[in-house]
Amino acid sequence: MSSVVFAKGSELGFRATVAEVNQSPEGDSSVTVSVFSDSTGFDFTILVNTNTKIESSGNPIALSDLEIGDFIRVRAFFSAAGIVAEDIDLLDGRIGQFRLRGLIDNITAADDGTLLERLGVSVLANANTSIRDRAQDTTKSVDSLVVGELVDAKGRVVDNVFTAKRIIVGKRREGHVEFDGAITQINGGTIIVTTRRSGVSLTVIINDSTSVYEAICLWMRWLKLKAFLNSNCK
Predict the structure, then answer these.
(1) What is the CA radius of gyration of the chain?
(2) Is the pLDDT confidence value at 171 over 80?
(3) Quick check: 203 and 102 in contact, CB under 8 A?
(4) What is the rounded CA–CA span in Å between residue 47 and residue 216?
(5) pTM strictly above 0.85
(6) Residues 6+ positions from 137 with CB-CB distance below 8 Å
(7) CATH class for domain 4-91?
(8) Residue 5: pLDDT band by 50, 70, 90 thresholds?
């Protein structure tokens, strides 16, 4: 069976390994991927833009976090410019890669970083380790980690040392929702959004923690929202 799957319309889904990553300071970036089928293997390039969602184990990561040899799952669509990636999901499977999840049992200083111990296994966090708070979606320093904290560490075994590339701290916030829709009403700290597909009207509350990436000012402007449900389903 081929690893390439064509879905309805112009949508394309496949699994592949990363062959090259080209990050552009302006405009679209690109990722060259290697796809293997029953008969042969081939490389092609997919475009990555600001709307492309890149994740690892459900956590957002940057394009720069992808490495040559990574195994990824891609959802994309065809455009005049080429194949554009909608979603890139980094999958486990890289040779020499590890993943360790659980509560931190002990923290000790090391010559080249900090050792986090879990069930007798020590994971090194150094200056190259990316650490994020899952609930707040903010970066953390290794000095802020404490014993008993829940971590999800991924990285590689380097010279027989488990060296973390990314550490996600804490539990996932419940009630996370994401949807597309059009603004149909603005009432101070709330907006009414009508979903694009089903036409359902939803009330969205805007507070001090809300990040707006483009000014909301036009009636019936389409937007994409990422939010959390409260007890009133708002």
Answers:
(1) 21
(2) no
(3) no
(4) 28
(5) no
(6) 60
(7) mainly beta
(8) very low
